[in-house]
Amino acid sequence: MEIIKTLEGMKIAQRRRAGQRVGLVPTMGYLHDGHLSLVEKSLSTCDITVVSIFVNPKQFRPNEDLDTYPVDLKRDIKLLEDLGVAILFLPKNADMYPEGYQTYVQVEKITERLCGKSRPGFFRGVATVVLKLFNTVQPDVAFFGEKDRQQLAVIQKMVQDLNLDIQIEGLPIVRDPDGLASSSRNLYLSPQARQSALCLQEALQLAQRRVAAGETSAHKIRSAMQDVIEAHPDTRVDYISVCDPLQFNELEVIQGKTLIALAVHVGQTRLIDNCLIERI
Ligand code: PAF
Fold it and tell me: What pLDDT digit, counting tens, does each position of 35-76 carry?
């Protein structure tokens, strides 16, 4: 596996591609099974797979976990080498955001809700870094996980609105054996907190069962989910959303394709999860 640490190096590698289909998997490292499913999809559908690892400071607010975000580069390199990844791109902060940096990408309306509401500036940081990675790597296709469904929608909107010639592929949530959605931040959870964290999946399953049994009131679903979460120790709901999956507008009546999404603090750790349902 070639490890490239400069933007210039990445551009040179890009020129060698000679018509081959390039897949990009952007990550912040501390790779888990969700990331690896994206890498495997890229490997099976592209000629060259580039994985980037960059903990992007522009998507963290001052009180968030930038300084403690888990890092284990040695382990990540081994995982990617074992899978047969061609290029690992490790840009440096000083190259991505040199002194005097002042340009950002702001996707508007769909970033005002859910995670965008509770983490102001988050999607501005994500869209900015993803566009910079796209410009440097110039992939044909880029892969993102559906656990961050709003992030996926923001990137799709950016690609559409800025006429980028890049295909965006969203892949299903990967879960650990206990049902918790795979996330680098799961590392923060103590064994007790991990038990409590199962409330996200439990709440989603309850919602799915209730809707399947005929419940159409979004309010009742939100409130049943809240009860499930509050029954677990050390949890605090950030949001529970029953919304349309394109604009993320809250619904009153569940009809057609509906996104159920939630963010919950378990101790100090903020976790997200979601599911798509369809009621005809
Ligand atoms: O989902 C992530 O890990 C990050 O938000 C991303 C897309 C790599 C941008 O920093």
Answer: 999 999 999 999 999 999 999 999 999 999 999 999 999 999
Sequence-distant (6+) residues with CB within 8 A of 272 are 115, 147, 148, 181, 200, 261, 262, 263, 264
DSSP-derived secondary structure letter, 48? E
Mean pLDDT to the nearest integer, 11-24: 91
**CATH annotation of 2-171:** 3.40.50.620
Q: Which residues contact 194 (CB under 8 A, 6 or more apart)?
A: 178, 180, 186
Is the domain spanning 184-273 CATH 3.40.50.1240? The answer is no
Residue of 143, 117, 123 lying closest to 49 (CA atoms): 143
CA 77 / ligand 1 centre spacing (Å):
18
Nearest ligand 1 atom, CA 26: 8
Residue 12 has a pLDDT of: 92
Ligand 1 near 66 CB (within 6 A)? no
- Atom of ligand 1 at shortest distance to CA of 145? 1
With a cut of 90, say whether residue 14 has pLDDT above it.
Answer: no
Residue nearest to atom 9 of ligand 1 (CA): 126
Q: Using the mean position of ligand 1's atoms as its centre, give its distance from the Cα of residue 151 in Å.
A: 8
Residue type, 51: V
- For position 18, what pLDDT does the model report? 84
